[in-house]
Amino acid sequence: MARDVEHDPLDFARSIGGKLVFTPGPTEVAEEVRQAMALPVANSDLDPEFARLYRATCRQLGELMHTRNDVLILAGEGLLGLEAAVASLVEPGDRVLCLANGLYGRGFADFARDWGAEVTLFEADDREPLDAAELERFLSEREAAGSGGETPLFRLATLVHCETPTGLLNPVDRLLPVLKRHGILTVVDSVSAIAAVPLEADAWGADVVLGGSQKALSAPPGLAFLSVSPAAWERMRRRRHPVPGVYLNLWRWHEEWLGQGIFPYTPSTSDIYALHEAVRRALAEPEAERFGRHERIARAVRAAIRAAGLELYPREEASSPSVTAWLVPEVLRPREAELRERLWRQHGVMMAGSWGPTAGLVWRAGHMGENARPEKGERFVRALVELLREAGWAMPGDPVAAYRAALG
């Protein structure tokens, strides 16, 4: 009896060529970025040329975020940056304010509790952006009430720029100055906003800003990066107890890398090659054009969604230029995972569902970075139209025509 030919597990990756990954990260990766990742691997611990590349990439990321603060690149997915910031800045008993109107905002609260913080939530509905005036009233009323007499009332505040699971964009440009006026150190998750949405880290008063390689920078997943202000470094220096760990301890980077030029652990060499090329490409495009490209594709995709008779989630004015989310029609919800699978297998286009409270209720498209191109947006719309027709959904308009008209 003939033996079956062994299946190569990498065949799935080889088959992706020609398909479209239109998700909110990981995104499509440009050929130049893939080629950079394939360059010969340096000894990142010993080669001074790699150290120069690392520093150059950090400077470029600082330019992208509009900050003169120190920038670090960590070997791990974006979530590593979020937890490392909390682990390095929070001590048991610290009062931490978590601004939350989505899964990641509430996830920050979980991190803070894990590291011993007393957490207070400032919440809003997950379809509405956080309101700076309400935050000002919230903080002023608490301070007036005394609440233990501490100044500032909270040692740290966390907030999310773009809530990726719902595509909601928060006005961090208005929220951060409120927190700064009240003397609160801030950590901002801008993972799915950086490079697609304006960000002025220094001008807005952010102490730590977190990003990830696989979102609007369109590099492969595997790296987190963050900027750290002098005030944040000072908070780490003055900790009452050392950080109980190694990999999450940002102070080691301050002492070893920034202080001595020695990496605390071996960097992900090839990932940094790719990130360097991705950041170079982002900076080569004038900022107004890059942001305008994202806004234009977002507007066109949302026009198509409405023409298909689908409801945006959240409303368009509160949505990020990097992600569009909409409600799955109730009649299709029992089959929503099956339909997404069919879109990928039969039409060669991948869109995302959601998770947390919106799991099974929301579909999402990621038009960020390399995905924010007119031809890719139209390919996604055409595939979605075919899927909806096959599923028996009656569309009141022509989504492709609406997409083209909104592009202008």
Task: Please describe what this structure looks like.
- The chain is of the alpha/beta class and 408 residues long.
- Helix content is 43%, strand content 14%.
- It is built from 15 helices and 13 strands.
- The strands form four sheets. Strands 2-10-9-8-5-3-4 form a seven-stranded mixed sheet, with helices on both faces. A two-stranded parallel sheet has the order 1-12. A two-stranded antiparallel ribbon has the order 6-7.
- Helix 3 packs across helix 11.
- The protein is globular.
Tally of individual domains: 2
Uncertain regions: pLDDT < 50 for 5+ in a row? none
**Helix-strand string:** HEHHEHEHEHEEEHEHEEHHHHEHEEHH
CATH superfamily of the largest domain: Type I PLP-dependent aspartate aminotransferase-like (Major domain)
Q: State Rg.
A: 22 Å
Structure class: alpha/beta
Q: Any idea of the CATH class of the largest domain?
A: Alpha Beta
**Euclidean distance between termini CA atoms:** 62 Å
> In CATH terms, what is the fold-level topology of the largest domain?
Aspartate Aminotransferase, domain 2
Multimeric organization: single chain
Query: Which strand order do you get reading across the main beta sheet?
Result: 2-10-9-8-5-3-4
Number of strand elements: 13
Number of DSSP helical runs: 15
Average pLDDT over all residues: 95
Q: Which CATH-level-2 architecture of the largest domain?
A: 3-Layer(aba) Sandwich
> What is the helix fraction of residues, given as a range?
40-55%
- What summary fits the major beta sheet? 7 strands, mixed
What is the structure about, briefly put?
Helices cover 43% and strands 14% of the residues. By secondary structure, the chain is of the alpha/beta class. The model has no long low-confidence stretch (mean pLDDT 95).
